[in-house]
Design a protein that fits this description.
This protein has helices spanning 10-25, 31-38, 42-48, 52-74, 81-94, 96-104, 111-130, 140-159, 168-180. By secondary structure, the chain is an all-alpha fold. The chain has a domain at 56-180: Tetracycline Repressor, domain 2. This is TetR/AcrR family transcriptional regulator.
Length: 184
Amino acid sequence: MSPPSTTATPEQHKLLTALALAMVDHPRATLTELAKAVGVSKATLYRFCRTREQLMERLVSYGVDTLMQALREAQLDTQPPLEGIRRLAELTLQNRELSCFLIHHRHCLEIEDANQWSVILDAFFLRAQQDGFLRIDISAQALTEIWGSLAAGAIDAERRGRIPRVGLNTLLERFFLSGAAVQP
C-alpha cells in the first residue's frame, strides 16, 4: 500500500516506518541512536523532528492516519463479510510497522483515535452477524476487541521471529474465523 499522499512522501513513509520499528526495539533510544538504527545521519533526523517528543507525536499521528486510511480502503461497509475480513487482514499487515508501534505505545493514543477504529469495526462485525456470517452469541464490540488483540499478537510475534511473515494474513483470517464463524 502506498503511504497516504496527504501526510507523507514515499521517502518520509519509509523513514517513519523504520523509525516506528526502531522506537519499538529501542524505546529509550536518543535521537542519535535512532538515527543510527535507521541508517540516517543525526542531522537528517533532526531536520525531520527536532525532539524525541516531536518524533513520538509525528509517529502516533501518522500511524493513526495510515491505519484509518487502510480501514477506509478495506471498504468494510460494502464488502461481503469474508472479503472484508481478508481485506482487513491484508491492509492491517501491510502497515505492520506502524501497527506494532501503536501497539507498543498505545498509552500515547487519544481516546478518539481508538474510538474511530472501533466504530468502523463494530459496524462491520454487526453487519456480518446480521448477514448470518458471524455468530451472534459474541457481541460485535467483543469481535472488534478479539480482532484487534489477534492482529496485535500476530504482528508482534512475527516481529520477534516467533511466526513467519509468509501467510500471516491467512493465519490471522483463519484463526479469527475459526472462533467467530457460524458453525455448519
